[in-house]
Design goal:
The chain has 638 residues and is an alpha/beta fold. It is 26% helix and 18% strand.
Length: 638
């Protein structure tokens, strides 16, 4: 490793003239030893308070040159001890900033420093010299839990090279995983009855059996949860100096996800939670340390409670790293990020470790209510019901007079989809690595592979949004929203107005101006086979599901207007067989209370989810309620 350091004059002193040399090649020098003397000119500053002193003014003018400057002399000192390897200047030379004047060979580069002490030679290198040059170049913090350990760029590069070789040898990549609302959902409560309520009202995942349902993780013997047999996908623990008890719900499929992905990735935890919280969660989800070991980075070591930095763990090479997180904003939309649908199990609770970050939804204490609500976890994958946490009714074995029992269930499928995406990305990387290695080219970059895979999802799609983004004063432009950016990164072309290029209108509700423009194009084009592009009006959930699945979804299940099914077939080159015809909803007169825009919406047959709303007797209130819930989902997503 090269320990020769070049020294020169600071920028504020250029140009300068060498007046005297203090050392020769081969001399041993101590830290702060003078190497040479140089002279530079300084302009007389009349605004300097010292210039108000008459004696100072007289002295300055005695030394002043013809151009109004006066000469100053300084030593060039070495901030390091070592041996002078070469002197690159002579007396009388005029030099400038950036020019190497003396080179010093350091016996130790102090490339690894722990709490101010060099890890190689043991010397104290915590100081800084008078010119602001640090005593060591070890300024990179790249370790998970050793906050006092820093390394130089050279050492960091060597560590990264070793890590890269190790991953290649085991045919793995690196995966950074967030905790809260990515693979778990957590809540803290001081209610002593919460654990008992949860045990009685949540039966656990389908694979829950008495032998694999552990007791509360981390609960002390005298705690309210001690002895409770929580479901196998729920754990609880206490933390020092925290009054409440923590309950964490594993995202469905977490154990299998970690088991399978560990074959392809070396996994790291990166959380905004504190170190005790991160350790407690890791002990619950990975008790044997098979998946994460000690690769855990918390808020205490990250250096920020607002941002996450990929370079904090991989300061030199990020070409083999991908990230799973439910937030893109904290990563500043890193190209290495795979954004995850936020996981919510406990009703009314967002990210308990968000800190200064904007919540996905308003945080509130969990409600001890055995009847779940639709906003508990909307999920992002269509199920038999739209809720992620649902109420299931089970008939009692008691006589018919007994009431049915209501349970909580969780149908989130995110991790099953992410597992397939990650395995596909892993295969793409090593396919390209085989090609680049054979041709002696630079290895592939995972960020570029992710970008190419994203671009294929919505390639050929041109989107126009309607009633999807907030329009209140101070709201960002549509082009600046997260959803616009994500749609573009997945290959879609996003535009503000409906045009001949438009293939999809993503509408938060039917009957808007842009939706009506799309309907008019349908009527003009009719069913002509020459009409290659007909705007399809879809619910925003089509776009979200396509993004989260990394696969374009069949628009048929997301249509606002049933007649668009033919356009879907035409646009995607599909042939519909046995398509079910849908009759238009009944029209109501204004005398019966139907709003004007509802009559406009009825011009085209609406899809069954909308038709059910409009056909109710209380159509005005029902339609407003439908639109309101849809807007809430989109705002939460943004």
């Amino acid at each position: 490793m090269d320990n020769i350091k070049s020294l020169g004059i600071p920028q504020r002193h250029q140009p300068a003239k060498i007046v005297d040399l203090k050392v020769r090649t081969g001399d041993n020098v101590d830290k702060q030893a003078p190497l040479l003397t140089y002279e530079y000119s300084r302009q007389i500053d009349t605004s300097d308070p010292q210039s108000e002193d008459a004696l100072v003014i007289k002295a300055l003018h005695k030394k002043a040159n013809a151009d109004g400057t006066y000469s100053m002399r300084e030593f060039l000192r070495t901030p390091f001890e070592g041996v002078v390897s070469s002197v690159l200047c002579s007396v009388g030379d005029v030099v400038s900033h950036g020019q190497a004047l003396v080179e010093v060979d350091m016996p130790c580069a102090h490339g690894a420093v722990f709490n101010g002490l060099c890890g190689l030679c043991g010397k104290d290198v915590s100081g800084v010299d008078t010119s602001g040059v640090p005593n060591t170049t070890a300024n990179i913090d790249m370790f998970h839990d050793a906050t006092g350990l820093r390394v130089s760029a050279d050492v960091a590069a060597a560590i990264d090279a070793d890590t890269r070789k190790m991953l290649w040898d085991h045919k793995k990549l690196s995966l950074i995983i967030d905790l809260d609302q990515t693979i778990i959902h957590a809540t803290d409560t001081t209610n002593p009855g919460f654990g008992q309520w949860l045990t009685e009202n949540y039966r656990g995942p389908d694979d829950t059996t008495p032998e694999n349902a552990p007791e509360s993780a981390g609960a002390s013997e005298d705690s309210p949860a001690a002895g409770q047999q929580l479901p196998s996908d729920v754990a609880s623990f206490f933390l020092p100096q925290v009054a409440g008890q923590f309950f964490i719900k594993y995202r469905p499929g977490l154990r299998g996800f970690l088991e399978n992905i560990a074959q392809y990735y070396e996994m790291h935890i990166y959380t905004m939670g504190t170190r005790p919280y991160a350790d407690a969660v890791a002990a619950a989800i990975d008790p044997d340390r098979r998946f994460f070991n000690r690769r855990i980075l918390s808020r205490n070591e990250s250096g920020s409670d607002e941002w996450k930095h990929l370079e904090r763990l991989f300061p030199v090479d990020t070409s083999m790293v991908t990230i799973l997180d439910d937030r893109a904003d904290v990563w500043r939309r890193s190209p290495n990020l795979i954004k995850v649908h936020p996981y919510v199990f406990f009703k009314g609770v967002g990210d308990i470790n968000a800190g200064k970050l904007k919540q996905h939804q308003a945080a509130a204490p969990p409600l001890l209510d055995p009847t779940p609500e639709a906003d508990s976890n909307t999920g992002n994958h269509p199920q038999a019901s739209d809720e992620g946490i649902q109420a299931e009714t089970e008939s009692s074995a008691e006589p018919a007079a007994a009431e049915a029992r209501t349970y909580l269930t969780d149908h989130d499928r995110e991790l099953y989809i992410l597992e397939g995406v990650l395995i596909r990305i892993h295969a793409k990387y090593y396919e390209e690595l085989a090609v680049t290695s054979a041709q002696e080219l630079p290895p592939p970059d995972l960020a570029q592979i992710l970008s190419r895979e994203r671009q294929q999802v919505l390639s050929g799609v041109t989107l126009v949004f309607s009633s999807t983004f907030p329009i209140a004063p101070g709201s960002p432009r549509p082009q600046d929203t997260d959803l616009w950016w994500r749609a573009s990164s997945f290959g879609a072309r996003c535009e503000l107005e409906v045009s001949d290029r438009t293939t999809h209108v993503v509408a938060g509700k039917p009957g808007t101006e842009k939706v009506n423009q799309a309907r008019q194009r349908h009527r003009r084009a009719g069913k002509s086979p020459e009409a290659s592009t007909l705007p399809i009006v879809v619910n925003p959930k089509w776009l979200l599901d396509s993004l989260y699945h990394w696969q374009r979804q069949d628009e048929t299940a997301y249509l606002w207007y049933a007649e668009d099914r033919d356009a879907v077939a035409r646009l995607r080159g599909l042939q519909l067989q046995g398509a079910e015809s849908v009759s238009p909803p009944k029209r109501k007169s204004e005398d019966n209370g139907t709003p004007g825009n509802a009559r406009k919406q009825a011009r085209g047959p609406l899809h069954k989810s909308v038709r059910r709303v409009l056909e109710r007797d209380d159509s005005r209130e029902a339609l407003n309620g439908y639109e309101s819930s849809n807007t809430t989902d989109i705002e939460a997503e943004l």
